[in-house]
Amino acid sequence: MYSDNNKPRGMALLISLLFAVLLSSSLVGASTIRVALASAEDDGPNNQRWVMLWAVPTNSRIDDGHYQLLSLLFRLDMINSIDKITITLEAGTPLQKVLEFKADGTKIVSDPAFAFVVGGTTLTTDGDYYAIGKAKGRFIIAIDKTKLVAGDHSAIVEVMTDIGKFTDHAVFKLRPAEANLADLVAKFLASPNSMKIGKKHNVQALESNEGDAEAHQHKVSIYLSTDSILDNTDIKLGFAQVDHLKKDQSKIVPIKFEIPSSASPGAAHLILKVDSDNEVPESNENNNTLVKAITLTAGSNEHGQNEGQH
Ligand SMILES: [Ca+2]
Ligand SMILES: [Ca+2]
Q: What is residue 46's predicted lDDT score, i.e. its pLDDT?
């Protein structure tokens, strides 16, 4: 599970909670505030009050098929009862959605966006007439993301107790559903099987767009590799710029390059890569290369160097 590192901890959290309690508009009366302050001053290791709400994850795609989860943990010493727990999304806006549940996780009121609640609370008393409970709660709240809109969301939890309410909040972001994407594919590379070192050559690459959207401007590049895997030790021989390629269309792309005089004669590989600078988001980025085995031959030295310079 994730945790939000920005959450205040320990005393800082307690103080922020106290402020939340003090600022809260729905406190039952001034006496409640005094109780909260007094208990804070008396706080020891066995007298703690905190409520924490996390969103898990904090950023996801709205249509990825998973629930948005909220993780709720609280410890509220010196209370007698929990009336209810509410989760409010987009509080105070037209998109507000509310979930109310009991301390045992039973739903009281639920917007359809809240799929389910799991968890519960342990509340113990010391048996005294002035019994003081130690309540520990742990819940997971699942939200159906498809019932929300893409964008930033806020969730507020309020744990309503006999001495007032305790709150925390969490935020999460839902990214829009993926639009249809292009899929550029390296289909064929027309080139001589044997190429002279130090000389210029022309090859023709064939790329197609097998995706569902037009591909905008991108580059088609040719690399020289000693093996059939494209990596950053390979030499980029040349490239061509393609303005656009509509879906279901193919294009022959001529590319000119020179085999560098530093290359060794013998077996080598030309590697064609379409969208070599990854300027086009694609539904499949793993079909963009094509490898062709070639043989490099030594050109006559003087002749080859002259040709390479003109
Ligand atoms: Ca592709
Ligand atoms: Ca790409």
A: 57
Kindly list the structural domains of the chain, giving each domain's residue range(s) and its CATH number in brackets, ordered by start. 10-175 (2.60.40.10), 184-308 (2.60.40.10)
- What is the pLDDT, as a whole number, of residue 6? 40
Q: How far is the CA of 95 from the centre of ligand 2 (A)?
A: 37
Q: What is the whole-number distance in angstroms between the Cα of residue 247 and the centre of ligand 1?
A: 12
Q: Is 67 helix (H, G, I), strand (E, B) or coil?
A: coil
Phi, psi of 308 (to 5 degrees): -65, -20
**Residue 175 identity (one-letter amino acid):** R
Q: Which residues surround ligand 1, an ion (CB under 5 A)?
A: 183-184, 282, 284, 287-288
The CA–CA distances, whole Å, from 309 to 26, 195, 196, 258, 303 equal 83, 17, 14, 10, 10
Centre of ligand 2 to C-alpha 218, Å, is 9
Closest CA to 63 of 148, 141, 125, 181: 148
Give this prediction's pTM: 0.48
10-residue stretch averages of pLDDT, the chain, 310 residues long: 39 39 33 33 60 97 93 89 95 96 95 96 62 81 95 97 94 88 96 96 98 95 96 96 97 97 96 96 93 92 45
Distance from the alpha carbon of residue 293 to the mean position of ligand 2, in angstroms: 24
Measured distance CA(228)–CA(259) in Å, rounded:
17
